[in-house]
Write a structure and sequence with these properties.
alpha/beta; five-stranded mixed beta sheet; single chain; about 60% helix; about 200 residues
C-alpha cells in the first residue's frame, strides 16, 4: 500500500481494497475494522490538513470488476469505522471526566480535613513541631488533588481532539479511483509515492 497526501486530500494506492481492512475481522466488508497501519497513515495525514476544510480520501486501486464492487462499499466502511472510533473516544472522555469529578470530590474532602488537622495541631504541639505537622498536612491535602487537576487541566483535551478528528474523518469524502492493471502507484496518484507499507 502506497500512501501520501496532497494539499487537500489523503491519497492511498492499494493492490486490492481489502488490504485496507483487518483480514481477520469476521464481519462483512463494510463493517470491518481498518487495518492498524492504514488507520495510522490516514489519521496521521488528517492531522496535517486544515481543520476548516472537509477531508478527502482518494483510494487508487487496480481496475477490475471485483475491485469496483468492493469500492462501492468503501465510503460506507470508512464512515462506519471512524464514527465508531469517535463514539469509543467519547465514552473514554466521559469516563475520564467522571473519574475526575469523583477524584476532585475526594481531594476536596481530604484537603479540608488536612486544613483542620493542621489548624488544631498548631494549638496542641510545640511551635517547631507544630509548624512541621501543619506544612506536612497542607502538602498532603494538595497532593490529594493532583490527579483531578491533571485530568481537568491536561488529560481530557488530547482525547477530545482525537475524537473530533475521527468525527471529521467519519464525514470525509471518499473517492475510489481505479487505474489500469500494471500502472504504478506513482502514476496513479500523479506524483512520487512518499511511503510504502508492506502488504499484510
Amino acid at each position: 500500500m502506497t500512501t501520501g497526501n496532497t494539499n487537500d486530500a489523503i491519497e492511498l494506492r492499494v493492490d486490492e481494497i481489502a488490504q485496507l481492512f483487518d483480514t481477520l475481522d469476521p464481519f462483512p466488508f463494510r463493517e470491518r475494522d481498518l487495518d492498524r497501519e492504514a488507520e495510522e497513515f490516514i489519521v496521521g495525514w488528517a492531522r496535517e490538513l486544515p481543520v476548516d476544510q472537509p477531508i478527502r480520501i482518494v483510494v487508487h486501486f487496480p481496475e477490475s470488476d471485483l475491485q469496483r464492487k468492493a469500492a462501492q462499499d468503501l465510503a460506507e466502511a470508512f464512515r462506519r469505522y471512524f464514527s465508531y472510533r469517535s463514539t469509543v473516544l467519547q465514552r473514554d472522555l466521559t469516563e475520564l471526566l467522571r473519574i475526575g469529578r469523583r477524584s476532585l470530590g475526594i481531594g476536596v474532602i481530604v484537603l479540608m480535613a488536612c486544613f483542620a488537622i493542621a489548624h488544631f495541631a498548631s494549638g496542641f504541639v510545640d511551635r517547631p513541631l507544630s509548624r512541621m505537622i501543619e506544612e506536612s498536612f497542607l502538602i498532603l491535602g494538595w497532593v490529594a488533588n493532583w490527579r483531578p487537576l491533571e485530568i481537568f487541566l491536561y488529560d481530557w483535551w488530547p482525547i477530545a481532539r482525537r475524537r473530533d478528528l475521527y468525527r471529521r474523518l467519519s464525514g470525509a469524502v471518499v473517492e475510489p479511483r481505479p487505474f489500469p492493471a500494471g500502472q504504478s502507484g506513482a502514476d496513479a496518484a500523479g506524483k512520487p509515492a512518499p511511503g510504502v507499507v508492506p502488504p499484510h
